[in-house]
């Protein structure tokens, strides 16, 4: 830190109020100043704050600074500085308790830090930052705190208790009795056999029908008598009208209905 301050003061004295300087004078001072800054950044030196009045509150922690300039640089980007400190602490776990960063590494302890190996190339699982876990929790309180001690076999009736005692006493005198006859063992092994239906079928044709009698009815005498029999008209009048008329009435053929029945 002293080397860095000396190089910075040398550069301020060289430049002063000048607006331009030769490169041969300025460049060597810049190179020395950058080398001192690299050494300081590599060593990560802790500076003691001269006054506790220069402090800032960030992420539930108070940070104290050497001067006002350091405070202004920190307030410009506080997350970057805090993250850089955590990166350094991961590589050097012994600084956890020195810088009071137990909240950032909740699973670490002095015993676990003592058991760490000398291998610094990897980050130990205990020192790795853990993600914030959120869970949903709920509680339920019963309305009445009443203990339920129910005996399902409880009986208050004296006579019911007596009946139960008699049943239990009778069970002691019970025994299982079984009998077997000569043919009783065949009852469980009964077999039946039937003739299965055959697949062959036959069919015989039968002619069925009805043969009723046929009846034909004729009307006879509608066309008169046959041609060989000639009769006089009933409307002819002659002298013997009365006697001739009686004879004609006897010879007149009247119409008749004739029915014939045929068995087919």
Please report the distance between the alpha carbons of the first and last residues: 151 Å
Strand order of the largest sheet: 1-2
Number of helices: 7
**β-strand number:** 4
Structural class per helix/strand content?
mainly alpha
Helix content: 25-40%
SSE arrangement, N to C: HHEEHHHHEHE
Average pLDDT, rounded to a whole number, is 70
Backbone CA Rg? 70 Å
The parts where pLDDT drops under 50 for at least 5 residues are 117-121
Q: What percentage of amino acids are in beta strands? A: 5-15%
* Main sheet: strands, sense, barrel: 2 strands, antiparallel
Explain what you see.
Helix 1 runs antiparallel to helix 2. With 264 residues, the protein is mainly alpha-helical. About 2% of the residues have low confidence. A two-stranded antiparallel sheet has the order 1-2. Helices cover 33% and strands 8% of the residues. Among the domains are: 53 residues, no CATH class; 49 residues, no CATH class.
């Amino acid at each position: 830190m002293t080397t860095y301050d000396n190089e910075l003061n040398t550069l301020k004295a060289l430049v002063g109020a000048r607006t331009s300087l030769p490169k041969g004078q300025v460049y060597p001072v810049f190179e020395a100043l950058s080398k001192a800054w690299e050494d300081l950044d590599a060593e990560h030196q802790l500076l003691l704050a001269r006054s506790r009045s220069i402090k800032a509150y960030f992420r539930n922690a108070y940070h104290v600074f050497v001067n006002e300039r350091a405070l202004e640089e920190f307030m410009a980007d506080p997350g970057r500085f805090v993250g850089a400190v955590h990166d350094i602490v991961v590589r050097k776990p012994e600084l956890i308790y020195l810088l009071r960063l137990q909240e950032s590494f909740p699973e670490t302890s002095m015993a676990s830090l003592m058991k760490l190996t000398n291998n610094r190339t990897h980050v130990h699982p205990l020192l790795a930052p853990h993600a914030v876990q959120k869970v949903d929790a709920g509680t339920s309180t019963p309305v009445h705190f009443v203990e339920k001690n129910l005996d399902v076999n409880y009986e208050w009736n004296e006579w019911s208790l007596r009946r139960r005692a008699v049943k239990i006493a009778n069970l002691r005198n019970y025994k299982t009795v079984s009998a077997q006859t000569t043919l009783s063992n065949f009852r469980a092994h009964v077999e039946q056999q039937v003739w299965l239906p055959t697949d062959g079928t036959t069919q015989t044709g039968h002619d069925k029908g009805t043969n009723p009698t046929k009846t034909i009815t004729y009307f006879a005498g509608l066309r008169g008598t046959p041609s060989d029999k000639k009769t006089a008209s009933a409307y002819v009048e002659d002298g013997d009208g009365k006697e001739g008329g009686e004879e004609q009435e006897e010879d007149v053929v009247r119409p008749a209905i004739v029915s014939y029945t045929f068995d087919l």
